[in-house]
Amino acid sequence: EREEEREREERGRMAKAKKTEKEGKAPRAANSGKTNVAWLVCSSVFGLTLGVSLYFWNTLKRTSPRFSRKDSFIMTKTHVDMIRKYRSKCDLSVEKLNQLIKDFQSQMSKGLKKEDEMIKMLATYVEKMPTGSETGEFLAIDLGGTNVRVVKVLLKDRKVQEVVAHEDAIPKELMTGTTKQLFDFIAKQVKNFITKYMKAQSMMMKKKKAYPIGFTFSYPMRQKSINSGELICWTKGFGIKDTTGKCLVELLQNSLTEQKVNGTVFAILNDTVGTLAANKFKDQDTQIGLILGTGSNAAYIERTSRCSKLNRESGGSGSNQMIINMEWGNYKSSHLPYMDVDKDIDASTLNKGAQHYEKMISGMYLGEMARRICLKASKEINLFGGTQRNKLEQEWSFPTSLVSKIDGLGTEDLHQVENLLSSTLNISEKSVTESDARFVAELCTLIGDRSATLAGAGVVAIYKYMLDNNQVDQGQRFVVAVDGGLFEHYPRYPDRMAQTFIDLLGKKQAQCIELVHSPDGSGIGSAVIAAAQCNS
Predict the structure, then answer these.
(1) What's this model's pTM, rounded to 2 decimal places?
(2) CA-to-CA distance for 192 and 59, rounded, in angstroms?
(3) Which of 18, 283, 362, 365 sits CB 3.0–4.6 Å from 296 for a disulfide?
(4) CB 243 within 8 A of CB 143
(5) In whole angstroms, what is the distance from residue 19 CA to residue 313 CA?
(6) Is position 271 annotated as part of the catalytic site?
(7) pLDDT for residue 533
(8) Sign of the CA dihedral 485, 487, 489, 491?
(9) Is residue 428 annotated as a catalytic residue, yes or no?
(10) Which of 142, 184, 271, 407 is labelled catalytic?
(11) The CA-based dihedral angle spanning residues 134, 137, 141, 147, taken in that order and rounded to the nearest 10 degrees
């Protein structure tokens, strides 16, 4: 009985313990649930607070470049949006460039058939190509850009043995004065040059032997023979009204005679023709002469049979080939990557409506493009704090040399870009933020890329045209002689052109095209062609 009573007591205690334990678990579970809810609420509030804080911090950094480090990649959203807009306008995809090339070639064909087409394809009557065997001392007069150069060239032993040159800037008032004032100025420079550099002149005077002269005239002209030509239109800032329709060789010869200069003009030619001829004298694989400087133009060797507009009664030797002066600067097309400022620049020039291609490529206009876009950015996105507009409103105040320097620096040295902008444009240093400097650096790169790519596409158009018409062979070495400060001094300009060849032709075929810098090609070429004519 006692054992049974102990067992009953033990079972009672166990039942009581279980009851107590069960009753205690319920409050603990309730407390745990409340804790979990509180933790979730706190986490959500913290996360939301952190997210909002980061959003406003990033917004502050984007709109305030001063919060960033100098080596950071920061540009405000407004700056980014504007540079993207201009990039989209300058679509230079392979597809777009191929459309451009096809249209360009179509205009070449039209120019060979008829006068006064968009790409003029002017006959030069240079049919006797330099062979390298020309010898003697010759004088060249080079009127191009805004300067006149006089050059003495000695050809001997299949080499250019000596070159002596002197250059003078043409006074601005003469660029819009009279024809006689301009040609008298040129004749005086020739007389001064002969007095200073050509001692043999006195001997020639005694023998009554005239110096053979080649005249490089770097503006659109229509020729009737190799020693006659009439101006079509002035470019590069000239606006002399009484020159059109007059024989340029006669104008020069008359002024030389008045200045008692004993010389005879044997040939008149464009600077692109001179560049081609000068390099042809040294390298017989030369097919194109190209000018990339203040202006831009190209010349190439064409079969005379393809130039159906050629009037043989006007001159010529009956040769089967001739150098064609393309005047490619006058090309314009819906396929060109126009920016809004291109039309503004065109409207402000003396030759409004003409030379669109040249105005997108040549060195004369690159700085003005940058200025106009910066002025627009000052008004729309507060470039330079929006306080320096008066410094940007003066036309042509942003030199192409500044575009070149900034493009060379790129975005790697924004502090130096800031200094250049401040010192060259006379802008307060405090007004030029890092974001401003990056915007201008990317803008200058865009302008340089567009120029070099369009120039490269033009070369490819001529190359493919000559291939398609069996004037050169597949895989043949194809030399392009180039003269001009843009090609020589603008950072990576030849490399950008070469990349365009690769993009459009493929690496293997692009290797056939060689860009050769031909310094002073326009001057030497004029003397070489005069030599060829004189010797013949």
Answers:
(1) 0.81
(2) 66
(3) 362
(4) no
(5) 129
(6) yes
(7) 85
(8) positive
(9) no
(10) 271
(11) 110
Q: Low-confidence residues of the chain, pLDDT below 70?
A: 1-5, 7, 10, 12, 14-39, 41, 45, 47, 50-74, 199-208, 311-318, 535-536
d(CA 494, CA 452): 8
Distance in angstroms (rounded) separating the CA atoms of residues 258 and 187: 8
- Tokens read off for 30: 């309730």
Instruction: Report how far residue 102's alpha carbon sits from residue 325's, in angstroms, rounded to the nearest whole number.
Output: 20
Q: How far apart are CA 437 and CA 406, in angstroms?
A: 9
- What pLDDT, on a 0 to 100 scale, did the predictor assign at position 451? 98
Q: Is 438 a catalytic residue?
A: no
**Residue 524 corresponds to which amino acid?**
I
Residue 319 identity (one-letter amino acid): S
Q: How far apart are CA 457 and CA 477, in angstroms?
A: 18
pLDDT digits over 196-220, tens only?
Answer: 887 655 445 445 578 899 999 988 8
Distance from CA of residue 413 to its chain's centroid?
23
How far apart CA 434 and CA 411 sit, in angstroms, is: 10
List beta partners, residue 465. Answer: none
Beta pairing class for 228-231 and 221-225: antiparallel
Closest CA to 303 of 317, 320, 316: 320
The pLDDT assigned to 373 comes to 97
pLDDT at 74: 62
What DSSP assignment string belongs to 440-508? HHHHHHHHHHHHHHHHHHHHHHHHHHHHHTTSS-TT--EEEEEESHHHHHSTTHHHHHHHHHHHHH-HH
Strands 263-269 and 211-217: parallel
**Residue 112, both tokens:** 């060979």
Residue pair 526/215 in contact (Cβ under 8 Å)? The answer is yes
Residue 447's Cα: distance from chain center in Å?
7
Query: How many other C-beta atoms are found inside a 10 Å radius of the C-beta of residue 32?
Result: 9
Number of Cβ within a 10 Å radius of residue 266: 24
Distance of CA 41 to CAs 32, 48, 217, 401, Å? 15, 11, 83, 62
CB atoms inside a 10 Å sphere around CB 324: 28
Among the listed residues 62, 218, 362, 449, the single catalytic one is: 218
| Pair 478, 515: CB distance under 8 Å | no
**Nearest to residue 526, comparing CAs of 130, 114, 108, 203?**
130
Q: How far apart are CA 359 and CA 341, in angstroms?
A: 11
Catalytically annotated residue among 62, 142, 149, 526:
149
Residue 141 pairs with which residues in a beta bridge? 150, 215
